[in-house]
Structure formats: structure tokens, C-alpha cells
From TrEMBL:
Domain Major facilitator superfamily (MFS) profile: from-to ranges: 23-423
UniProt subcellular location: Cell membrane; Golgi apparatus membrane
Protein name: Monocarboxylate transporter 13
Functional description taken from the UniProt entry: Proton-linked monocarboxylate transporter. May catalyze the transport of monocarboxylates across the plasma membrane.
Membrane spanning stretches: 21-41, 91-110, 116-137, 149-170, 176-199, 240-261, 304-325, 331-359, 371-390, 396-422
UniProt KW keywords: Cell membrane, Golgi apparatus, Membrane, Symport, Transmembrane, Transmembrane helix, Transport
Chief subcellular location: membrane
SUPFAM superfamilies: MFS general substrate transporter
Membrane topology annotation: Multi-pass membrane protein
Species: Sparus aurata (Gilthead sea bream)
């Protein structure tokens, strides 16, 4: 009798979510790890000019370095989610931290541009993919009522690190050259490993490896297991596909200012430190946007999808205004638009991941986040090279920022086609049906047919 009450309490706690306790420790771990993933990725624009001068390549060719890293991180996110579902989230994140640091350390020894593609792009990108999605899903699984606020606090490190990293990286490049700076960043990225060690193993509520293992052949059982870990059934659900398309369009233009705003500012006639401080100011307002958006979203006054659409639209408009503000040579105008863009860009990231469990359910959240990152990886691969190509053709970054902002506005229009988008309440998330549930439904239908009266069966035969 003493074992009944604790079990019941634990089940209710898991259903409602703890909203505190060790979850806040995981928020701190996410705070550090995301700063060393996307905060560092955003600040790589400091190396952009150095790479152009050292390797004597076009802006488009250099843009593929950061774009490859972003696309690799998103492409391998389903692998990270599947490994977490199959094995141990803690181990997966720690391995990812080691790969992230190793890629940057090897990049410091690069002698050709292809070496940077393989090290900063592929190796570090793979490590980032094994870190980001599992950390986000772990924090989301530990919160319910304050989930968006927890994400906002965890993601605020990206803006904080952008504010701190840009001047720091500029100083490191001037003092140790780009090779020494990358070596230091590689050692800094290894701090992701202790962040992953803070993740506590959780009991799994489902065991997809045991589904129909006795009746199906080994190959079919393996395919069912892989499909269950990756949550491939989501690819056949219209709400998820529509939302993923909207996020992918957003991803095309979202990162362009973080890679090219520094170069654009220097081309507009501002000094190196003035250009770096523009990104630092955007990073500072990014912090405020993430926390304020998370707090406001959890008040429940508006649906999350409506708030996401608003912030995405505003971010697109401000991206388009960035080159316009600097045409007159006014540094103050450029700074104001950068602050507004940073706030909007930070505000939408607190919401974009919190919408996923509303569409797919908490049970399929890990796989849903992984597939989302995979599908939008193609968009991340396209964004910065397209921006670099437009710069090479036109000679400036005006067209680059105009096209990038247009993609975010197009993403807003795409999300408006979601089912029940104009409703005031969120529809209930779809429930996952396992193969066992389908078999039970089939057996119940057969029982109903077999339970028909004999004379009815006889009449049907006649």
C-alpha cells in the first residue's frame, strides 16, 4: 500500500510537469550550451572579412562556411533526437560538445577553404546538431505552464553571447590572428560537455523496440523502430508540414544579418568596432526580446501561433530597413533599426519551438523538433550564399537584405494557412496511434463482423 501513493503522485507530476526544481538547472545548462552553439555561430561574421582576405575568395564562397555549419546542425538534428529516444540524452549531448570543440580546433589549422567547410561546417555542425535539439526538448519536457518563459531564458544567452562575443572575437583576431582565435573558441566550446552531464536520465513511457517484434520479421521490426524514433508519421500530417514550411522560409532570411551586417556596416563607411557594436546592440535587444516574449506568451492572452506570426512579420520588415537606414550614412539610424530587429528576432525564437508540442503533442516533441531542424536545413543552406551572391552581383548588400526580409514575410503568410489559424483557441494536438492501436481497431472490426446474427450473414450471402 505504501507504493501506490508515490506512483500516483509521480504520474500526476509527469502529466502536469514540474515547472521548477531541477528543470531550472537544465535551463542554466541550456543557457550555456546555446550560447556556444548559436551565439558563437552568429558571431562568426567577425571572421568573414578575415577569410575573404586570407583565402582571396568571393563573398559567396566564404558564406558557405557558416551556411554549411548551420545546415549540418539542422540536418543531423533528427539523428540527435533518434539517439536520445533510443539511448541516453546525456551521452548524446556530451559527444556533441566534444565534436563542436574539435571542429573549431581543427579549423584553426586550415590551409584551404575546403578545410573550413569540413571542420567548421561538417564536424562542428554535427556536434551542434547533437546538442541543440536534445537540450531544447529536455527543457520543454520539464515545464508546462512556464514553458515559453523557460525557453526564453535559455535562449537569452544567444543574444547575450552575441553582445559579448563580437567585440571579444574582434579582439582575439587582432591579437592572435584568426587561427589563434579559432583555437580559443574550440576550447571554449568544450564547456558544452559538462552542460550535457547535468541532464538526468528519464524513464521512457514507450518502448517502440518491442512493437510487433514477435509477429514481424527482423527487418520490418527494425524499420518500425527507426520510424518510431524519428517520428516519421509527422511527415503525413498537414499541420506539421505547413508549420515546417513556414519555419523553413523564415530560416532563409533569419540568419543573414548575423553573417553580413558587420560587412555591410563596414562597407557603409563605419569603423571595425562600430560595425561590431551594431551586432552587439542587436544582441542586447535580442536578450530583452526573448525574455519579454516568453513572459508575455505564458500569460495566455494570445495564441502562440499568432504571436509568432506577428514577430516574424516585424523581423522581416526590420531586416528590409537595415540597408535603407545606412544609406544616409547615419550610424544612429542603423543602430535604432538594429535594436528593433534584434528585439523581434529574439522574440520569435522564444515562441517558434514552443508551438511544436501544440501541433504534434508532447509525446512526439523530440522527434518533431528533430524533423523540423532537418527540413529547414535546406533553407539554412540557401540563405547566406544567396545573400553573398546578390552582393557579388550588385556590389552591395541592399538586395541581400531586401530578399531576406521578404522570406520572413512570406513565412508569415504561409503560417496563416494552418488549420484553425484564425480561431481564438488552440485545437487539441493529434494523438499518436501506434501499430498496436491499429491492430486493436482491426480486431474490433472483425469481432463486430463475426458477431452479426446468422440470419443477417445468410441474407448478405443471398
Amino acid at each position: 500500500m505504501t507504493d501506490v501513493k508515490p506512483k500516483a503522485e509521480s504520474q500526476s507530476d509527469e502529466a502536469e510537469g514540474p515547472d521548477g526544481g531541477w528543470g531550472w538547472v537544465l535551463v542554466g545548462a541550456m543557457f550555456v550550451s546555446t550560447s556556444l552553439v548559436f551565439g558563437l555561430m552568429r558571431s562568426l561574421g567577425i571572421f568573414f572579412v578575415e577569410f575573404v582576405q586570407y583565402f582571396d575568395e568571393s563573398a559567396q564562397a566564404i558564406s558557405w562556411i557558416s551556411s554549411t555549419g548551420l545546415a549540418t546542425q539542422q540536418f543531423f538534428s533528427p539523428l540527435g533526437a533518434a539517439l536520445c529516444n533510443a539511448y541516453n540524452t546525456r551521452v548524446v549531448v556530451m559527444i556533441g560538445g566534444c565534436l563542436a570543440g574539435l571542429g573549431l580546433i581543427l579549423a584553426s589549422q586550415a590551409t584551404r577553404l575546403v578545410h573550413l567547410y569540413l571542420t567548421m561546417g561538417v564536424i562542428s555542425g554535427l556536434g551542434w546538431g547533437l546538442v541543440f535539439t536534445p537540450m531544447v526538448a529536455t527543457v520543454m519536457a520539464n515545464f508546462t505552464r512556464r514553458r515559453t518563459l523557460a525557453l526564453g531564458l535559455g535562449f537569452s544567452s544567444i543574444g547575450l553571447s552575441s553582445f559579448a562575443f563580437n567585440p571579444l572575437f574582434q579582439l582575439l583576431v587582432e591579437k592572435y590572428a584568426w587561427r589563434g582565435a579559432l583555437l580559443i573558441l574550440g576550447g571554449l566550446s568544450l564547456n558544452i560537455v559538462p552542460c550535457g552531464a547535468l541532464i538526468r536520465p528519464q524513464r521512457r513511457s514507450k518502448a517502440p523496440a518491442k512493437v510487433d517484434s514477435e509477429t514481424n520479421p527482423p527487418r520490418a521490426s527494425l524499420l518500425q523502430r527507426v520510424s518510431s524514433y524519428l517520428e516519421l508519421s509527422l511527415l503525413f500530417e498537414r499541420p506539421y508540414i505547413t508549420y515546417t514550411l513556414g519555419v523553413s522560409l523564415m530560416n532563409v532570411g533569419y540568419f543573414v544579418p548575423y553573417f553580413h551586417l558587420v560587412a555591410h556596416s563596414r562597407q557603409a563607411g563605419f569603423s571595425e568596432y562600430q560595425a561590431a557594436f551594431v551586432m552587439s546592440a542587436a544582441g542586447a535587444s535580442d536578450i530583452l526580446g526573448r525574455v519579454a516574449s516568453g513572459w508575455f506568451s505564458d500569460l495566455g492572452l494570445f495564441r502562440l501561433i499568432h504571436l509568432l506570426s506577428m514577430w516574424t512579420f516585424l523581423a522581416g520588415v526590420f531586416i528590409m530597413l537595415l540597408p535603407v537606414s545606412s544609406l544616409s550614412g547615419s550610424y544612429a539610424a542603423l543602430m535604432v533599426i538594429s535594436l528593433l530587429y534584434g528585439f523581434s528576432a529574439g522574440a520569435l525564437t522564444s515562441v517558434v519551438f514552443a508551438v511544436v508540442p501544440l501541433i504534434v503533442g508532447v509525446e512526439r516533441m523530440m522527434g518533431g523538433l528533430g524533423l523540423l531542424q532537418l527540413i529547414e536545413s535546406s533553407a539554412g543552406l540557401l540563405g547566406t550564399p544567396l545573400s553573398g551572391f546578390l552582393k557579388d552581383v550588385t556590389g552591395n548588400y541592399v538586395a541581400s537584405f531586401m530578399v531576406s526580409g521578404g522570406f520572413l514575410i512570406l513565412a508569415t503568410l504561409t503560417m496563416a494557412t494552418l488549420p484553425h489559424f484564425f480561431s481564438c483557441r488552440d485545437p487539441p494536438p493529434p494523438q499518436k496511434r501506434s501499430l498496436n492501436d491499429k491492430d486493436k481497431g482491426l480486431h474490433s472490426e472483425l469481432e463486430q463482423i463475426n458477431s452479426l446474427p446468422a440470419d443477417t450473414n445468410h441474407r448478405e450471402e443471398l
